[in-house]
Each structure stands twice: as structure tokens, then as C-alpha cells.
Amino acid sequence: MAVLLTLLLFFFSTVVFGQTSDCPGYEATNVLDGDSYLIADLSLIGKCNTRLHVLISDADNHVFQVQEQVLPRPKSHNSTSGNTELKFNLTRNPFSFSVTRASTGDVLFDTSGAALIFESQYLRLRTSLPQNPNIYGLGEHSDDFRLPTNGYTRTLWNAESPMIPTHFNLYGAHPVYFDHRTSGFTHGVFLLSSSGMDIRLDQTDAGQNYLEYNTIGGVFDFYFLAGPEPVAVSKQYAEVVGLPAFVPYWTLGFHQCKYGWPDIDHVNQVIANYSAVDVPLETMWGDIDYMQDHRDFSLDPSRYPLDKVRAMVSSLHNNQQHYMHILDPGIRNLDSYATYKRGAEKGAFLRADDGSFYRGRQWPGEVVWPDWFAPGTQDWWTSEIRNFYDSSSGVDVDGLWVDMNEASNMCDTNCVKSSSSSDSYIQTWTSREDIVAPKKRHDSADPFLGLPNRDLFNPVYRIANHHGDISAFTLFTNVSNADSTKQYDTHNMYGTMMAAATRNALLSRNPNKRPFVLTRSTFSGAGRVAAHWFGDNASTWDHYRTAIRQMLSFTALHGMPFVGSDVCGFNGIAQEKMCARWAWLGAFQPFYRNHADISAPDQEFYRWQSVADAARRAIDVRYRLLDYMYTSQWRASVDGTPVASPLWFKYPRDQNTFGIQTQWFLGDALLVSPVVDDDSDSVNFYMPDDVFYDFWTLEKNKYSGMMHRADNVPLDTIPLHIRGGTILPMRVKSAKTTAEVRNQNFTLIVAPGRDGTAKGELFLDDGISLDSEGRCSEIMFTWDGKALEANGTFGFDTSVVVESVLVLGGDNGTREEKGPWGLMGAFGFHL
Ligand SMILES: *[C@@H]1O[C@H](CO)[C@@H](O)[C@H](O)[C@H]1NC(C)=O
Ligand SMILES: *[C@@H]1O[C@H](CO)[C@@H](O)[C@H](O)[C@H]1NC(C)=O
Ligand SMILES: *[C@@H]1O[C@H](CO)[C@@H](O)[C@H](O)[C@H]1NC(C)=O
Ligand SMILES: *[C@@H]1O[C@H](CO)[C@@H](O)[C@H](O)[C@H]1NC(C)=O
Ligand SMILES: *[C@@H]1O[C@H](CO)[C@@H](O)[C@H](O)[C@H]1NC(C)=O
Ligand SMILES: *[C@@H]1O[C@H](CO)[C@@H](O)[C@H](O)[C@H]1NC(C)=O
Ligand SMILES: *[C@@H]1O[C@H](CO)[C@@H](O)[C@H](O)[C@H]1NC(C)=O
Ligand SMILES: CC(=O)N[C@H]1CO[C@H](CO)[C@@H](O)[C@@H]1O
């Protein structure tokens, strides 16, 4: 159907630490009407504008738009002035627009190559790209970090994705890409849409590169992010989708999980066996094994009896360790199951067209599904969590893990094929008398509910979902949410909404504590509420390498700083040497958890001597760097600076770095270059044109932008460099738990850059308070070649000191200055 379109255009100003720099500007408000199908309301707003918002929507506002409650957007404010870094140029007939960078004249986005299509169930918009474009993002995927640009399709449709297949849609949808130009300038383009879509990167017959959106609904709601530094784009994206949640300090410790632990005694043995080999275990996890018949908020009475589970959790807590539980969205629909009964009373579940609760299949068997839009759902979910995880009578978990929330339905669209059990419940798929059908919920006066008369089950345009039909193995897309929107439009947000509801519940349980939620399924902005692991990969070298580029996508491009892979791989048999290398790889990724499938052999680090040795040493180094990592998590939560970034983020003009996906910067200072080839002891790695110091020997070297090779890399180390120009705070010693690490003193490593100067920062607080305002320290370190200064705010009460400062790279090598210096006020020294 033809749709009358409105074009809204906004410019945004960037506010950095409360300052805005004014730019001179112009005013433009145009209304285009008449012969074409298009109406355009143009309003330019902002001061020094680094962000441009272009919304192409139907004039009647029927077409679905992402609910503000799910993804709150920054408020746009009109202003009559604004010289913008991003220039918008509209061509009326045929309609197209372009966005150019004012300072260089570079065309960043240009839709003139193909006509815009805006139909009720198919939208297309194409932008041209430069030759050999460097495009990154559009996660979640397991493909090359720099995306292929010929005959390549990225499908965004959250799906159960065992083995994280390449070239397919996985668990998350992040319709944002970074376009990095050889000039060294980067910009970002975010399409705020939860619709299923194929994004094609290809060339025309004439050889023109393009990127083309093909969506099955929604509007074209674009945010253009000017950069121009890559890091600036990450920050500008965070301004749009929200700053990531700050994690508790303990979550940076080492975690162990496995699906298939038979009983609580076994779990206790794992804890004891880690202790016996002196590999610090911070957090134990419970996968669905703990549940009775795989039901949320239940314990198997014989395998995981409450008293024993409580005793284990107490013992963990007494040793300053932690415990996590998994939850799935599928709720077994039996009246004898109180969680279900209470949810039903609150109307917390999605409904079929006859008003009964819509059913599917998950681990517990036939289930119903929380409707996160229903008014009673949050209350119900919160009270289930508060009751079951009550610290005095239940399982006193330290955080929650939400899985299967794409949502993953073990039923295809026929609900037969995948049904492994004999109770073929498709036959019981009838309306239930006891449930009152809800009132007619669609009020056509409400905006953004979606156009009427769509085929929500079999849209004409079929995205390349790896499960086939969009309703296969998930919730039927024609199911209505309580706010009258449809799963067809909101599917990609289901998992993030579950994570948000879980975070809210944890906040209600412990209002002053920073909650920790790990989610499998994500959507743009999920970082505000949850951390993420990369799902069910395999115990292969290939997935060891994949973990690096997936980390880079999430931390640098998708605003999710707390992520990691299942260390040693989830499916299949972990080989000893690979697991030892992965113990190191994981230690330099933000979230560090060993986890395996029920069908996989046990792969705890202590299962092999060599792996235990590797892990012990890797954890030792990680824990000494824990405050450096914590500080970068804090920094990300404050302004969106990536925790881990690709090399081109720091060397944006060095074209050699654009395709690197097996090395990364962790924070500002550390360059990690692990062994990546199967079973190898050597690694070829790139060193940008700069000063670097070997982390282990502290030896200084000037590099010139070339490949280097390390041979005979033993299993007890990882190639690691400190970038010149940085100051690295490290604990003097590691410890068995992160709580003990916090009592250790610091040493500062000053690594002067080419110009002889260096800087760094350190954030200190109690590690757990939701709000540590006034009780935290934000310390800036500067080195000018002769003097060190530590300055900032010093609100955190601590007796920990800086014992010494190592200044690297002097004429006589490393120079050590002995303190101690207290951390409750500014300090410094001159050489
Ligand atoms: C900006 O101005 C336009 C045109 O006058 C108006 O339609 C729009 O509502 C304004 N937007 C805001 C956020 O004030
Ligand atoms: C605007 O776009 C038209 C058509 O692509 C082009 O001819 C014109 O030069 C552009 N104007 C500016 C200021 O970029
Ligand atoms: C723990 O270690 C003991 C002694 O080596 C071993 O017999 C047992 O199987 C181990 N259990 C687990 C769960 O690792
Ligand atoms: C969705 O479509 C399926 C297949 O046509 C149909 O069986 C089902 O009743 C529909 N559900 C709703 C909620 O409309
Ligand atoms: C930290 O340094 C202070 C002052 O030198 C010292 O008293 C204290 O014992 C040190 N703490 C640890 C855990 O070594
Ligand atoms: C450090 O802080 C003090 C007090 O706020 C201030 O006077 C001084 O100029 C600061 N030094 C630097 C290098 O910022
Ligand atoms: C380096 O060592 C030599 C010999 O001990 C000494 O004379 C010189 O002053 C030192 N230089 C620096 C910069 O400390
Ligand atoms: C990236 C990768 O290794 N993907 C593999 C995951 O596992 C499946 C099934 O074993 C393979 O087909 C993929 O190639």
C-alpha cells in the first residue's frame, strides 16, 4: 500500500562534561507538498552538532515505531542556530537525500542510487559507499570484524543459533554500522528499528558499492553520528541508545559454569577442586540443572535440595565468592505450578487470538511466555524473583542470567517436528474456558501500533532467517502484545525486555546494589541493562578466534562493554592446549567465564595440569590489572568509551590496522596479541608505528607499523604490550578473590610516549553501590617527562597506597620511585 510519508530531521548537540561549544548556524523549516507522495517537515536543531536525526515515517503515525519505554531516546530540541558537521541535502523528485561531512565535503550517505520503497511490509533504502569500504558492526554475527562488502547479507532477527553459524542471524540485533574512511575519519549510522531485516552490502554492475536496508516493517529512523574519531562515534552512539550499566567489581573475577552438573555435591566438588589447585574461582553458576523439571523458581528436591544449596551459597559468600542462576522465559502452564498461577492472575502472558495464553515449548515442556508489555508482568516477575531469591529463606544469588530469550521456542511453526516428547500438545491447542479473553485492544487512534491488514505470519518479503519462517522456533509473529503492538514488530526486543525486567527485579530486591544480569539475546541499548556472552559456540580454534571479533563488535561498536565468550568453548570436546590458550584469551576479555554444554566433557581449568597452570598465571595477571579493567568499565558507563577496541580505533590513519581482528586494545594502554593459529606456538602480530613496552620485560621498543613474530610462546604467557603515553595502575599482588585484591597496594607503571609524556586514570569505590557519588575517587595521573601528578577527586575512604612508581624507558631503563603515597588526596613527585 502507498503510505504518506513525513520526513523529520533533527540535529543534536554533543554535551561533553557539561560544556557545549556553540557553532554559528542557520535555520531551515521546509514543508514540501504537492505532486509527490512525500511531505517533509525539516527542522534543524542543535549547537555544535555531531549528530543528525532523520526520521522518515508515515504522516498518520500508524507504522510501528520502537516504544520509548523500551529504548528511551535523547530529547530533541529545536534551535534556530546550528552549524553542523553533518549537512543534509534533500532531492525532491525522485526523493533521495544525502549526508555530507561539512569539514571535508565527504559524502557519508547518499540514497540517490535506488528509489526509496516504503510499503506496509517492505521498506528499502540504499546508500552508496566508497570503493573498498571499511564497514563494521550490524551485529550480532560471527563473520569478519570488517564486514565483507560483496554479495554479503546481514540478517537481523534474533534466533536460537547453536554453533553461531557464520553468515547468519544470531541472538542479537544491532542495526548500527561504523564507516571508517581512509582519511582516518569515521562516522556511524544507526537505524533505530526492531524490524526483521536484511542489510545487503554489495556492488552494482557498474561497480558502485552500496549498503541496502530491506526491512519488513517499521520506519526509517536514522541517527547519523559524525565522529570523526572512531571513539567519538562509540560515544555518540551511547548518547542515543543509552550508556551501559556499570558492573559490580566482583563480576570481573573468574566464573565457572557447566550445563549438566548432576547435583549439588558435584558443584561443591568443583568449588573444592578449584581451591585445591589454587586457581581463584570467584563465581559459581547454576545452569538449568538446578531446576525441578526445568521450571524457573524451583529447585530439584533430591539433586539440589534447598538446605544444601543455601549451605553452598553461604559457604561461597563466607569465602567472598559469588553465585549466579539461570532463568528462561518459558513458564510451564500447569495450575499446580504457583509461578504460572500467579502470572496468569496478573495477566502476565502473551495471548493467542482466542484470548487464551499463547503456548510454545521450552525446556520445561509446554510453556506460556511473559508479555513484557503487560502492566502486571514486571510486578509478577519481581515478586517471583524476590520470593525465590530471598536471602533469608531462598537462594541468595548475586545476579541473574537470562537465556533462551530470543525467544527460543523448541517448536517450529507446526509445533510438531521439534517436539521430542510424546505429549503432542498441538492437539491441546484449544481455547481455555478459565481465561477471559481480553477486551479488544487495538484502538486505531493510538499511534505506532502498526498498519492494519498486514500478513504478520507470512510477509511477502522473506528475510534470510536461518530458521526459515520468521515464526519458526520463536514466538508466532502474529501474536499481540498487551499494548496492541505485534511480535512481528517487537520480536528483536524480547530478550532485552526480559533482561530489563530482571534488572528491575534485582533493583527492587536490593535497591542500593548494582545489579548484574547476563543476557543471551540483545537489541540496541541492551548494554543499559545487561552483560552478554556470545552464546553456544564450539570448542574449536575457529571459535577461539571468533571470540575476539565478537568482543570487538560488542565493546567498540554496540555499546556493550561487559561481554565474553564461553571460555574453552561450549559445544564439543575442548582440547588441552586450546583450553590453556583460551584461559589467557578470556583473561583479557571483559567477562571471563568457562562454560560447557551437557554433552561436552568437563572442561574446568583444573582438569589438566597445563591448563590449571596457564589459568593460575592468567588470573594472577588479570587480577593485578583488575582496577585498570574496572576503571575502563566505569569510563564506558560514564561516556561510552569502549573497554576493548580494534587497532584502528587508536591508529585510524594506519590502513594496515583496518582488517585486524585477532589483536585488540584492552583499555587505553594494553595491546593484546594472542597466539591464534591452531595448536601453534607462534604468532604473527602487527605493531603500529609508535612506542610500545613489553608488558613482561618492560623493555621499550619503537615500532614502525610492521608485522612481528613471536616464536615459542609458552602456555604460561600471552604476548602483551603497553602503549607509550599511558599510565597503568596495577595491584602489587593478586589474591584468591576480588575482595582480597581490593586490599592490595598499587604500583603505577608510567610508559612515556614519543613525546615523553603519559597519562592514565583510576576509579575507586566500594565496588558494589548503585550510586557511589561522593564516595568514589576519580584519579587522573599525568607524567610530563619529569614529574608525576595524581589529581582528581578523592572521595573513597581507603588505606591502600601506591607503593611505587615505575617510569619505563629512561636512559638507564626502568626507574623506580618508592612511595608510599596515600590514595585519599593528590600526590606527585619530581625526578
Ligand atoms: C521543531 O520544530 C518543528 C517545526 O516547527 C516542529 O514541528 C517540531 O515539533 C519541533 N520539535 C521540537 C522537539 O520542538
Ligand atoms: C544536493 O544533491 C543534489 C543531487 O544529488 C546535488 O546535485 C547537489 O549538488 C547537492 N547539494 C549539496 C549542497 O550538496
Ligand atoms: C574433584 O577432584 C577429585 C580428586 O581429584 C576427583 O576425584 C573428583 O572427580 C573431582 N570432582 C569434580 C567435580 O571435579
Ligand atoms: C497466527 O497465524 C497462525 C497461522 O496462520 C494461526 O494458526 C494463529 O491462529 C494466528 N495467531 C494469532 C494470534 O493470530
Ligand atoms: C600497603 O602499604 C602500606 C604502607 O607501606 C603497608 O603498611 C601495608 O602493609 C601494605 N599493604 C599490603 C596488603 O601489603
Ligand atoms: C590538582 O588539583 C589541585 C586542587 O584542585 C589544583 O590546584 C591543581 O592545579 C591540580 N593540578 C593539576 C595538574 O590539575
Ligand atoms: C644512568 O646511570 C649512570 C651510571 O650509573 C648515571 O651516571 C646517570 O646519571 C644515569 N642517568 C639517569 C638519567 O638516571
Ligand atoms: C565460526 C564457526 O566455526 N562456525 C562453525 C560452528 O559450528 C558449525 C557446526 O559445527 C559450523 O558449521 C560452523 O562453520
Automatic annotation (TrEMBL):
<dbReference type="Pfam" id="PF13802">
    <property type="entry name" value="Gal_mutarotas_2"/>
</dbReference>
<keyword id="KW-0378">Hydrolase</keyword>
<feature type="domain" description="Glycosyl hydrolase family 31 C-terminal">
    <location>
        <begin position="640"/>
        <end position="728"/>
    </location>
</feature>
<feature type="domain" description="Glycoside hydrolase family 31 TIM barrel">
    <location>
        <begin position="244"/>
        <end position="631"/>
    </location>
</feature>
<keyword id="KW-0326">Glycosidase</keyword>
<comment type="similarity">
    <text>Belongs to the glycosyl hydrolase 31 family.</text>
</comment>
<dbReference type="GO" id="GO:0005975">
    <property type="term" value="P:carbohydrate metabolic process"/>
</dbReference>
<dbReference type="InterPro" id="IPR000322">
    <property type="entry name" value="Glyco_hydro_31_TIM"/>
</dbReference>
<dbReference type="InterPro" id="IPR013780">
    <property type="entry name" value="Glyco_hydro_b"/>
</dbReference>
<dbReference type="Pfam" id="PF01055">
    <property type="entry name" value="Glyco_hydro_31_2nd"/>
</dbReference>
<dbReference type="InterPro" id="IPR025887">
    <property type="entry name" value="Glyco_hydro_31_N_dom"/>
</dbReference>
<dbReference type="InterPro" id="IPR030458">
    <property type="entry name" value="Glyco_hydro_31_AS"/>
</dbReference>
<dbReference type="Pfam" id="PF21365">
    <property type="entry name" value="Glyco_hydro_31_3rd"/>
</dbReference>
<feature type="signal peptide">
    <location>
        <begin position="1"/>
        <end position="18"/>
    </location>
</feature>
<protein>
    <recommendedName>
        <fullName>alpha-glucosidase</fullName>
        <ecNumber>3.2.1.20</ecNumber>
    </recommendedName>
</protein>
<dbReference type="InterPro" id="IPR011013">
    <property type="entry name" value="Gal_mutarotase_sf_dom"/>
</dbReference>
<dbReference type="GO" id="GO:0030246">
    <property type="term" value="F:carbohydrate binding"/>
</dbReference>
<dbReference type="GO" id="GO:0004558">
    <property type="term" value="F:alpha-1,4-glucosidase activity"/>
</dbReference>
<feature type="domain" description="Glycoside hydrolase family 31 N-terminal">
    <location>
        <begin position="75"/>
        <end position="197"/>
    </location>
</feature>
<dbReference type="InterPro" id="IPR017853">
    <property type="entry name" value="GH"/>
</dbReference>
<dbReference type="InterPro" id="IPR048395">
    <property type="entry name" value="Glyco_hydro_31_C"/>
</dbReference>
<keyword id="KW-0732">Signal</keyword>
